[in-house]
Design brief:
Elements: H1 22-34, H2 40-56, H3 60-80, E1 88-92, H4 102-116, E2 120-123, H5 129-137, E3 142-147, E4 165-168, H6 171-180, E5 184-187, H7 192-206, E6 215-218, H8 225-238, E7 252-254, H9 257-267, E8 271-277, E9 280-285, H10 291-300, E10 311-314, E11 331-334, H11 341-353
Parallel strand pairs: 1-2, 1-5, 2-3, 3-4, 5-6, 6-7
Antiparallel strand pairs: 8-9, 9-11, 10-11
Helix pairs in contact: 4-5, 4-9
Length: 354
Amino acid sequence: MPDSKEGFSNPVELHFTRTNGPVDDAIDRLMAQVGDVAHPDIVREIILAGLKAGQENGGRADLKLMNSSMKEMRFTAKVFSPYRKVRKVTVFGSARTRPDSPLYQMATDLGKNLAEAGFMVITGGGPGIMQATNEGAGPEHSFGVNIRLPFEQKPNPVLVGNPRHITYKYFFNRKVAFLKEADAVVLFPGGFGTLDEAMESITLLQTGKLYPLPLFCIDEPSGTYWEHLFSFLDNELSGHGYISHDDFGLIERVTRPVDAVARIRHFYSRYHSLRYVDDQLVIRMSAPLNQKDVDALKKVFAGILVHRGDMRLSGPLDDEINEPELAHLPRLVVDFNKRDFGRLRQLVDAINDC
């Protein structure tokens, strides 16, 4: 009789390298049989990760978590992938903001202004600020990434039946969707969830886990919500050296939706996107800089360069061949120190102002 708990003896020791013999052959045959598998090298590792998890972990709860997470992330990619070329703005705020509140009207105006400017909006899909933003943008310009809760978080009327509405079991998958798909973030006042989303967004920007994007904290002109929070950040975090003063360059405060939209549009007026190629930061732009501008930027932002580092104009690098749709964009290659991300955000602003 087999002596393992699953009914099989002599389990195969699996590796992500192609050293698994007949197992690798079986995975190759499976993908060929299924057909139309993009990036089979990555899919192969996903399959191996599932098999290894089954071998290594006898806990059903752990395997269920991995399974549900994978399913949620797969569905997230499926829903968002047709809209990759459309810029999107994630809007956070309280589910308890009432329709008669000035903040509700501001969120409605924000959604409307963003849609008119060609953006789509991503909200948590619930009531309050989320519903107001979706109402302003309209269902055709809206995504909702909801969370299963025993209260508050039912789909708002704008998103009922909308194919761009997703309900998550896990907060961490939902957060990935909020920020991975965002080209800008706008935060309205809110409760614990909003503060969690604010700190998560700022942390990812501060550590470079999220590429530079506009992040706005919005309140009515007489509001004190962000004023008090910024005072705490300045006095307690910056004042005690827990953060750098340059980190405040990652955040902006506004009191009018139209100003947030104008600044988001300006952020992408020349700057397009960036990526790392080996140790080089490659900034793609929709319009080229001249050498005089580059020399000036190099002087102002010398502090974010590695020792003896440089900034130089370039076309696409060889390793960018997997993004042919961006090959026409001019580049600024920066020997970035991968540390001063607040100053990097300011570099993007300076590029747009050239």
